[in-house]
């Protein structure tokens, strides 16, 4: 997942050229995704990209063709001339993979395309297949943890999803918990990454030591692991937790809408559905650009952006979730703007920086 240079021979690479292709050839005796089509239809509706992201991930994890990300990388390096031009050797490509010896991957799904449905589908099918006994979903903040927990509990309470799972399902109706409870067989535990280091408050260590090979780990908004802010030591240790031999995790899936380390694209993406595609296919509303800004100070600019967003949320687009996107010239400028905006939101709404970061 460590990144690759985005410029080769002065030509900008397309991110799609860097996506690792998972072979569609799967022995049905090992895994038959077709028997879950009714479940995927009920879960995803007409959002075919969600279904395909789920299928692609499960073929990779359960198809038996790959033992690790290293195997998938080797297959793609031999078939993809872009990768061959980018890296002088296969060994060099291996060096740019963050978790090469795990069955690890990342899904690049644009903001507002429903990543939670995809990771829920993956978790539910892995449990139904009996490939794992429990699922650990790690989030970068309490805010995201709360939102995911509500979504997963709602989906687990959907009788239709349970009824359309093919029989026999090894685990048909998982319990949704957080790490304040002991993680048991059949659980999906959703927790803030910080809890993995708070041993007095978290059951993760006691529950999962020695059980990593039978645990699916899902890293939500995984770009936070790749780009941890200097002030957050727990995010910096995220990768260390995944590699800790006392757990020996095998299956690791990440999701993000911003799959970059600095200016560079992740090297372990197996499926991509971009913002442009989501707009063209009308799953996300087209961008409505704001009028020319004549503000003189950053505070004044932020206030106008804030007022416009609140107006869209409360009046103009009450029945959908409006997004406000700020575009910068490069990653460095984006990071500076992000810090300034977080500070503005924290002061404006009288909330903590943690909550301001995920508003």
From TrEMBL:
What SUPFAM superfamilies is this protein classified in? P-loop containing nucleoside triphosphate hydrolases
**Cellular component aspect of the GO annotation:** cytosol
Helicase/UvrB N-terminal domain location is: 47-240
Q: Which Gene3D superfamilies match?
A: P-loop containing nucleotide triphosphate hydrolases
An annotated Gene Ontology molecular function: ATP binding
By what name is this protein known?
Answer: Helicase/UvrB N-terminal domain-containing protein
Source organism phylogeny: unclassified sequences, metagenomes, ecological metagenomes
